[in-house]
Amino acid sequence: MRAMLAGDRVGARVQLDAAENEPSPLVRAETLVDALVWLNVLLDVKLSAFPDRPPE
User: Fold this and answer.
1) 18-25 — which CB contacts under 8 Å span 24+ positions?
2) H runs (alpha helix) in 1-56
3) What is the dihedral of CA 19, 44, 8, 29, to 10 degrees?
4) Is there a contact between 12 and 26 (Cβ–Cβ < 8 Å)?
């Protein structure tokens, strides 16, 4: 899931698809933990109170 943290959405999708078909419960669990860490990072991002101004 390092691809997620790096912002590589295509790479992250490939990793998630591969993990879904992984027979090893350990690998699936590690992928789930990585995804939860990524989600936590995403939710902790500080955003401004106001949206970006549209281009003029």
Assistant:
1) none
2) 2-5, 9-20, 25-43
3) -10
4) no
Scanning the structure block, which residue is given the tokens 């419960």? 25
Q: In this structure, are residues 20 and 13 in contact, taking their beta carbons and an 8 Å threshold?
A: no
pTM of the entire predicted model? 0.50
Q: Tell me, rounded to whole angstroms, the distance of Cα 10 from its chain centroid.
A: 11
User: 3-36, pLDDT tens digit by residue?
Assistant: 555 667 787 778 777 777 778 888 888 878 887 8
Report the distance separating Cα 16 and Cα 29, nearest Å: 12
